[in-house]
Design a protein that fits this description.
With 132 residues, the chain is α+β, with helices and mostly antiparallel strands. The protein has a single domain, classed as Rossmann fold (3-Layer(aba) Sandwich), CATH 3.40.50. It is built from 5 helices and 4 strands; from the N terminus they run E-H-E-H-E-E-H-H-H. Helix 3 crosses helix 4. The longest helix has 12 residues. The model has no long low-confidence stretch (mean pLDDT 96).
């Protein structure tokens, strides 16, 4: 299972979509081993939101893995997180990732590959304090 939340920023009415109770509700909808994925926002423009969202996810899930990539549409580095009670995306080796892509016929990709998988979760020093 995967729940992918492509949400607006956590302001106004959307604040409820970033509450621990909402994340807990999402968790109840996931099968064992399932994951919730959502954006954290910019670590430069809104570091407080990044910190807050990660803390709320950690209050509901056993494993929370943040990652950061450049998003050309925004012209900025943007954060995302994978939250699960089982899945730890940092523990899958590149050979396994490559084999999974091949076995599923996933050939054409513009960004993702097994090496990038590990690169995006390797956090730069300036981001590490935000995700602890």
């Amino acid at each position: 299972d995967l729940i992918y939340l492509d949400l607006t920023d956590p302001t106004g009415a959307a604040t409820a979509l970033y509450a621990p109770e909402f994340f807990a509700n999402c968790r109840t909808k996931l099968a064992d081993g399932g994951a919730l994925v959502l954006h954290l926002g910019s670590p430069f423009s809104h570091p407080d939101r990044v910190v807050s969202t990660i803390q709320k996810l950690k209050s509901q899930f056993s494993v929370v893995t943040p990652y950061f990539v450049h998003v050309p549409t925004y012209g900025a580095t943007w954060g995302f997180a994978v939250a699960s009670d089982v899945l730890d995306i940092g523990r899958v080796d590149t050979a396994t990732l490559g084999a999974r892509l091949a076995s599923r016929g996933v050939a054409e990709r513009k960004f993702y590959n097994p090496q990038i998988h590990h690169a995006v979760i390797a956090l730069p020093e300036y981001i590490k304090p935000l995700v602890r």
